[in-house]
Amino acid sequence: MLTRIKKDKQLGGLVERIVGRFKGPISIRVAQDTAFCLTQVAQNDKTLKILKDNITAYADKLGDELVWDHFEEVLGLIKKLNKPEMKVCDLGLKNKIN
């Protein structure tokens, strides 16, 4: 199903929904599964912006080691895109997370 998403708007909507699952009280297991879902989605400048804008939704879940590992994987995928503006945004997100 994820391979059928071709447009940035569709991808952005999917990432917004996934990040929205972090809001509110959820179990660690759900946070881990949700973070894993983010690793399965293609990353681009829109997804990075969504992650950066919604950091308050998942910041408290980053204390879990598995959730943290999944977010590091997402940041690694973003870094591979090799766009200069993405690297600046990526650094901004890393600084907010740390």
Description:
The structure is a single chain. With 98 residues, the protein is an all-alpha fold. The chain has one domain. The chain is 68% helix and 0% strand. It is built from 6 helices and no strands. Helix 1 runs parallel beside helix 3, helix 2 packs parallel to helix 5 and helix 3 packs parallel to helix 6. The mean pLDDT is 83.
Concise overview:
The chain is mainly α and 98 residues long. The chain has one domain (2-97). The chain has helices spanning 8-20, 28-39, 45-53, 55-58, 65-79, 84-97.
Helix content: 55-70%
Helix-strand sequence? HHHHHH
Which structural class should the secondary elements be placed in?
Answer: mainly alpha
Count of helical regions:
6
Secondary structure tally: strands: 0
Oligomer: single chain
Report the biggest beta sheet as strand number plus sense, adding barrel if it closes: none
Q: Give the number of domains.
A: 1
Radius of gyration: 13 Å
Keywords:
single chain, 98 residues, mainly alpha, globular
Layout: helices, strands, pairs:
Blueprint: H1 8-20, H2 28-39, H3 45-53, H4 55-58, H5 65-79, H6 84-97
Helix pairs in contact: 1-3, 2-5, 3-6
